[in-house]
Amino acid sequence: MTAEVHQLPYASRLLLFLTVVAVGVKWTEPSVAAAGDAPPGKIAIVGAGIGGSSVAHFLQQHFGPQVQLDVYEKDTVGGRLATVTVNKQQYESGGASIHSLNLHMQDFVKLLGLKHRRELAGKSAIFNGEQLVLEETDWYLLNLFRLWWHYGMSFLRLQMWVEEVMEKFMRIYKYQAHGYAFSRLEELLHSLGGDTFVNMTQRSVAESLLEVGITQRFIDDVIVAILRASYGQSVLIPAFAGAMSLAGAQGNMWAVEGGNKLVCSGLLKLTKANIIEAAVSAISLHSSEGKTFYQVHYEDEEGQGSSFYDIVIIATQLHDSKSSITFQNFDPPIAEFPGIFHTTVSSIIHGYLNSSYFGFPDPKLFPFASILTADAPTIFFNSMDNICPVNISGTFRRKQPQEAAIWRVHSRHPLEKQELKTLFRSYYSVQVTEWQACPDYGSVKTLPPIVLHDNLYYLNSMEWAASSMEMAAVAAKNVALLAYNFWYHDLGKIDQKDLMHKVKTEL
Ligand SMILES: Cc1cc2nc3c(=O)[nH]c(=O)nc-3n(C[C@H](O)[C@H](O)[C@H](O)COP(=O)(O)OP(=O)(O)OC[C@H]3O[C@@H](n4cnc5c(N)ncnc54)[C@H](O)[C@@H]3O)c2cc1C
Ligand SMILES: *[C@@H]1O[C@H](CO)[C@@H](O)[C@H](O)[C@H]1NC(C)=O
Ligand SMILES: *[C@@H]1O[C@H](CO)[C@@H](O)[C@H](O)[C@H]1NC(C)=O
Ligand SMILES: *[C@@H]1O[C@H](CO)[C@@H](O)[C@H](O)[C@H]1NC(C)=O
Fold this sequence. Notes:
Blueprint: H1 7-27, E1 42-46, H2 50-63, E2 68-73, E3 83-86, E4 89-92, E5 98-99, H3 103-111, E6 116-118, E7 123-127, E8 132-133, H4 140-151, H5 154-169, H6 171-177, H7 185-199, H8 205-211, H9 216-229, H10 239-247, E9 253-256, H11 262-271, E10 274-277, E11 279-288, E12 291-300, E13 303-309, E14 311-314, H12 320-323, E15 326-328, E16 341-353, E17 368-373, E18 383-386, E19 405-411, H13 417-423, E20 424-439, E21 451-453, E22 456-458, H14 469-487, H15 499-505
Parallel strand pairs: 1-2, 1-14, 2-10, 7-17, 11-15, 14-22
Antiparallel strand pairs: 3-4, 5-9, 6-9, 7-8, 11-12, 12-13, 16-19, 16-20, 17-18, 18-19, 21-22
Bound molecules: flavin-adenine dinucleotide and 2-acetamido-2-deoxy-beta-D-glucopyranose (NAG) (3 copies).
One 2-acetamido-2-deoxy-beta-D-glucopyranose is lined by residues 195-196, 199.
């Protein structure tokens, strides 16, 4: 949205950094197993979203191709990366856009020979329930002046704050390239940004922004709208998750040509993992001859079954109703995970926008492709976008507002008929997906564990710090390294302090 005008120095500086890191990533060759340690025979992965499919890839990268990988998926490969079809074209209904500095996602796309789909430029505005405020104008300098006039330094301070968080966050790629892993989220965050990062999971983004001198007015007018457009969140979410969402509002976003979910199916195919279409119901612990292993119990169309594994990775949410996996024979028991998820409804609507509702009686004059919203009682949706299909040819152009177009509306609840009739003059179709989109961060006080037992890992604990495709990929690389380092007793690569210094001297 409007933030694009300031992003140049940020982008170029970080792109330089990116090149350095990208070179770093190439240094890692799968390490050689210590002599005498047998490699694991079988590894189970529960969930085939971006977390599960990328951990399959990373596990194979480290343990080698001889390890058997079984991936359990109860629904569809891709999970929260999904598309719906309108008139033979597919549109993203879940996770949609990827930041240009998301290096793991970039690597996957390169590795799989997939293509970037650039987001078509389009203007945005914020709707306050009565009219559109903070419209983007054609001439970006005018935009700049307008924002400065309104908000003084807040805009620049926001850019600097997000840039600082991103720069520190990107240290993770170096650490991971050198084979370092973390057994707790707090350790991981601390190694990236010290106490400040850990604290950023405990305090609200509003608090952190006020502290760096951003005005309450700017938060109310701009930050609220950006966070509402990102799964309908508020300025009360923790500062770390907030910073990640705000980074996504700076432009420089892309998506995968053909659909983001192609990354998941592509990685699973590349690793030749066995995809088992079944719901995992329980994991039980067994030991014999001093060796522990895990039994994964599942249900599929034919009934119940189970298999034994040396290592198990849980790559889905372990909170209330979402996965319903129980843990048996563990002593101490693996406790239930508290916390609830935040529901976001995504409606893909093929229809004619009611531009009058936004103060434009003549639809031809409606210039916006994206509408964000203020937090006002009369507003019943979080954001809406005039979207492009996942495959766009060279001749593609976005539909004009007076034409029937495809709009993606995000809301807290499924839209009622009356609400649809308010937003659209008329429509051909509505396809609704109700997502458990991301954690309701306020519902828990502490971050969940990554290590549930010796060789049993919880990849999605990362979401309680921040939730996105790249965070899932970062968690996947961490869990794969952790599993590998633990298996071969390489404790010097786990939870090391002062890594910035270590990776410099290791070159
Ligand atoms: C509307 C929406 C918009 C979003 N926008 C963005 C965005 O723009 N950019 C971005 O980076 N991120 C975005 N996200 C977030 C992103 O999509 C998620 O963070 C990411 O896809 C999560 O991947 P995952 O693999 O961790 O989990 P999931 O995708 O949820 O995968 C978990 C899988 O496990 C399976 N499973 C669950 N329980 C079991 C069981 N018992 N047995 C077997 N299988 C099981 C599920 O069926 C599922 O397929 C968005 C999300 C939503 C919902
Ligand atoms: C983090 O929070 C703790 C406890 O609230 C506080 O003592 C510490 O000063 C904070 N550190 C930073 C760097 O903000
Ligand atoms: C869409 O893009 C994907 C990835 O490039 C490609 O495999 C697929 O064939 C394309 N589909 C269409 C209908 O063009
Ligand atoms: C469109 O918006 C106007 C103005 O809010 C409203 O009066 C009208 O009922 C809406 N719906 C249609 C179908 O025009």
